[in-house]
Design brief:
Layout lengths: L1 E2 L7 H4 L1 H11 L1 E5 L1 H12 L6 E5 L6 H9 L3 E4 L2 H10 L8 E3 L6 H9 L3 E4 L3 H5 L8 E7 L21 E2 L3 H11 L2 E6 L10 H12 L9 E3 L17 H14 L4 E4 L3 H4 L3 E13 L2 E6 L8 H5 L5 E3 L6 E2 L1 E6 L8 E8 L7 E4 L20 E4 L1
Parallel strand pairs: 2-19, 3-4, 3-11, 4-5, 5-6, 6-7, 7-8, 7-9, 9-10, 10-11, 13-16
Antiparallel strand pairs: 1-15, 2-12, 12-13, 12-18, 14-18, 16-17
Helix pairs in contact: 9-10
The structure holds ligand LLP.
Family: Belongs to the Orn/Lys/Arg decarboxylase class-II family.
Protein name: aspartate kinase
């Protein structure tokens, strides 16, 4: 038997009664904490050396979250026309220069449309310049560079290096320059994003060195975007990206290139810890030596454990102070064996109706959810 790790400083611990109530009423619910969201945005905005924080809204596009981040002075990084239109609808009057559009393998029409909007448009490879040079005549564009190495918590989220589909590789710089000149476009921004769930700040430092090194080739560049990817703690007690280290890497870069505008575009860092998934226990089952705790929602709400083997802490919110004495698999109601929210988890003796909390679910939770099995994913609440 062991006492559950001390969680008393977590926002959801402080508000546990309210959350248990929400879980009971809804069976399953994503809950986001406004104060935590605000705190994360303010922490990044305050970092010296960074001129712009563009929230990667693929992580979570809840309109209230977008409004809150807008009020904190963030911009928005969008990867599809629908994401751009969603931001514009949610934030009427938003300065178009606070939207960065970074599609990949999008159809021609999306570039035509994007360039008409007055937003920043990023080219992800040479095809648009080769096949549709007429679109870019006289236009200012960003180019996504493949720095040559991918980073991140899983192969599927490493977005640079020859095995990833993203970015213009360094060995294509000559050709890129030729195509840019031939089209009459101007490269005003350089962009890179090496992956997601990165903990070592060397990543952004070396990305910064690579991108600033390319500014000699593209003299119109005024902005360098180092991407997102900042990792957050997934296990209680684990350390996330150390912001002071991150800041000193960026400050050094800024000091060496004072005229360049420096942007970052994190998603996960801003929302992951501010969100939890609540799921009420539906059934208990023992089979052989394995105990199953079944809950009201599963991979239809949170696919990360099934897709990447990601770890999300699970606690029994109804019995937070009880001794954890049972090792269980927490599973959802979806008809796949991969529908597991957590394996071999130490929980207190659990009963039907208890509310479990699945932590760090604010990023890539609801955003990647589905109606698989025609089961609605958990509804969302801001508190
Ligand atoms: N910028 C670009 C161009 C991106 O592709 C991404 C994420 C981000 C920024 C934001 O990355 P973040 O700061 O959130 O790590 N579904 C996966 C993560 C995929 C991220 C895809 N791109 C997961 O649940 O771990």
């Amino acid at each position: 038997a062991s006492k559950v790790t001390d969680t008393s400083t977590q926002w959801w611990h402080v508000r546990r009664n309210e959350l248990v109530e929400l879980g009971r009423k809804n069976g399953a619910a994503f809950v986001y904490d406004r104060n935590t969201l605000k705190g994360k945005a303010q922490a990044l905005k305050a970092l010296p050396g960074i001129d712009g924080v563009f929230y990667a809204l693929k992580a979570n596009w809840h309109p209230e979250i977008l409004k809150l981040f807008h009020d904190e002075g963030l911009g928005f990084e969008c990867v599809s026309r629908n994401e751009v239109e969603h931001v514009m609808r949610t934030l009427p009057g938003l300065d178009r220069k606070r939207i960065l559009f970074t599609p990949n393998f999008a159809p021609r029409d999306e570039y035509v449309w994007g360039l008409e909007q007055g937003i920043w448009v990023t080219l992800d490879n040479l095809h648009p310049l080769k096949a549709w040079p007429e679109l870019f005549k006289g236009k200012d564009v960003f180019v996504r560079i493949d720095t040559g190495y991918g980073r991140g918590h899983h192969d599927k989220v490493r977005t640079a290096g020859v095995h990833s589909k993203f970015g213009v590789p360094l060995f294509e710089m000559e050709e890129l320059t030729r195509l840019i000149n031939a089209s009459g476009a101007r490269v005003v921004g350089l962009h890179a994003h090496t992956g997601s769930g990165v903990f070592n700040v060397d990543n952004w430092q070396s990305v910064g060195e690579t991108l600033t090194g390319l500014t000699q080739r593209f003299p119109d560049v005024h902005t360098v975007d180092l991407g997102g990817g900042l990792g957050v703690p997934e296990r209680l007690g684990q350390q996330g990206v150390v912001l002071t280290e991150f800041a000193s890497a960026l400050s050094a870069l800024k000091a060496a290139h004072p005229k360049l505008t420096l942007w970052i575009e994190p998603g996960r860092y801003l929302v992951a810890e501010a969100g939890v998934l609540l799921a009420q226990v539906t059934q208990l089952k023992g089979k052989g030596e394995v105990q199953y705790v079944g809950v009201a929602t599963g991979m239809n709400s949170l696919i990360r454990p099934a897709l990447y083997g990601s770890h999300h802490e699970i606690l029994n919110l109804s019995r937070l102070d009880a001794l954890a004495t049972e090792v269980v698999n927490v599973v959802g109601p979806i008809c796949e064996s991969g529908d597991q929210l957590g394996l071999d988890r130490l929980l207190p003796p659990t009963q039907e109706g208890d509310v479990l909390l699945i932590a760090t679910a604010g990023a890539y939770g609801r955003a990647m959810s589905s109606t698989y099995n025609l089961r609605e994913p958990a509804k969302e609440f801001l508190i």
